[in-house]
Amino acid sequence: MIREGIGNYLLSGQFLRFCSDHDLSEIWGGLLRASADRPEVYGSDTVRNALFRLLEHIYHGRKVEFPRIFADLLADYAKKPSDLLFVPAVKQDLIKLGYSREEVEESFSITGG
User: Fold this and answer.
1) % the chain with pLDDT above 70
2) Contact 35, 50 (CB under 8 A)
3) Less packed terminus of the chain by CB within 10 Å, N or C?
C-alpha cells in the first residue's frame, strides 16, 4: 500500500477533504505535527508515520467504522485499478481482526476490489 507517492497524497487537498469528510482533520493535524516534532525518530518518514498513527487511532477509537473508513481511504488514494492489488490482503487482515466477511465486503465494495 505504501508507495513513494503516498506522501504527496497525504499532504494534498484531496486527503484533507477525506479527513474533513470523516471528521479526522483535527486528529490528522495533531498527528502530523507530533511526528514532525520528532525528526530524530521519524526522519523523512514523518508523513507515513502520521498515517500509521491515524489508522491506529481510527481502529481503536472507531472500531465499528474502521473497515469503511479504511476502504474509503484506499478508494480516495487509488488513481488506477492496479493501485488496488493489495486490497484482498487488507480484507483478509480485517477478517483476522474479527470483522465479519460480510461487513468487510460491504465496506470495500466502493473500491471494486
Assistant:
1) 80
2) yes
3) N
Q: SS in 3 state form for the chain? A: CCCCCHHHHHCCHHHHHHHHHCCCHHHHHHHHHHHHCCHHHHHHHHHHHHHHHHHHHHHHHCCCCHHHHHHHHHHHHCCCHHHHCCHHHHHHHHHHCCCCHHHHHHHHHHHCC
Kindly state the cell numbers that stand for 53. Answer: 498513527
* Digit-coded pLDDT (tens) for 5-60: 677 888 888 999 999 999 999 999 999 988 887 766 655 678 888 998 999 999 99
Distances (CA, A) of 75 to 11, 70, 79: 17, 9, 8
Say how far apart CA 25 and CA 18 lie, in whole Å: 8
Cβ pair 84, 112 in contact under 8 A: yes
Burial of 69 (0-12, 13-18, 19+ CB in 10 A): buried
